[in-house]
Amino acid sequence: MVTPMAHIAVRRIQSGDYEALRMLDDAVMRYSARAFLGFDWDSASSERREEQRAITPDIFAFYLHTACSFVAEDDEMIVGYVLAQPLRHFDLEPLAVWVEDISVHPSHHRRGIASALYRTLHDWGQSAGATAILAGIHVDNAASLAMHRHVGFDLYESRTAVWRLD
Ligand SMILES: CC(C)(COP(=O)(O)OP(=O)(O)OC[C@H]1O[C@@H](n2cnc3c(N)ncnc32)[C@H](O)[C@@H]1OP(=O)(O)O)[C@@H](O)C(=O)NCCC(=O)NCCS
After folding, report:
1. pTM flag (> 0.85)
2. Mean pLDDT score of the chain, rounded to an integer?
């Protein structure tokens, strides 16, 4: 029997990880488009794909330097990541950790990889003095809602107000 977590190591994201994360993002987006975003990744235009991606040069460059973005590797490749940043949210928590994205390769789901990434982020957050981890989750993303509940998050319904400046 395979031990689910036997070969998974979690480490901080590094500058050489971009190509591997971009390939992982392709697999995750193909899955997510079908599972809860409601479109077909392979027939979508390249502009639509780029809009939806979690891994772009700008996003990668930013999260490389937040100190709290991590990847999970098995013996062969990067199979998951969490992109996060410290956030001062004075009316809620003096210091929180904001999760931009957490994703795992579809062929590696349900092996505890997202949970392992969150354990590392949790420990980092505690040692940095943060009092909460915050994440935004698509309402139709059943797997993510279940995983966040499983890890220990409380789920709230909320509305987001956006005043566009462009
Ligand atoms: C959501 C996601 C990150 C979960 O990653 P994962 O590594 O499979 O999660 P884990 O194995 O740590 O799951 C832990 C627990 O969460 C729950 N869970 C995870 N996926 C689930 C699913 N599809 N259905 C029901 N429960 C689920 C289970 O309780 C699971 O424990 P179990 O397998 O022992 O029953 C993964 O499905 C994914 O990458 N999805 C596409 C990208 C995405 O939606 N990211 C989240 C953005 S907010």
Report:
1. yes
2. 93
Q: Which atom of ligand 1 is nearest to the CA of 31?
A: 41
Phi, psi of 137 (to 5 degrees): -130, 135
Residues 6+ apart with CB under 8 A from 21: 13, 55, 60, 71, 78, 81
Which protein residue has the closest C-alpha to ligand 1 atom 48?
137
Residue 148 to residue 37: CA distance in whole angstroms: 18
Closest residue (by CA) to atom 18 of ligand 1? 147
pLDDT tens-digit map of 71-118:
999 998 999 999 999 998 777 788 999 999 999 999 999 999 999 999
Where do the domains of the chain lie, and which CATH numbers do they carry? Answer: 9-151 (3.40.630.30)
For residue 72 and ligand 1, the question of a CB distance below 6 A is answered with: no
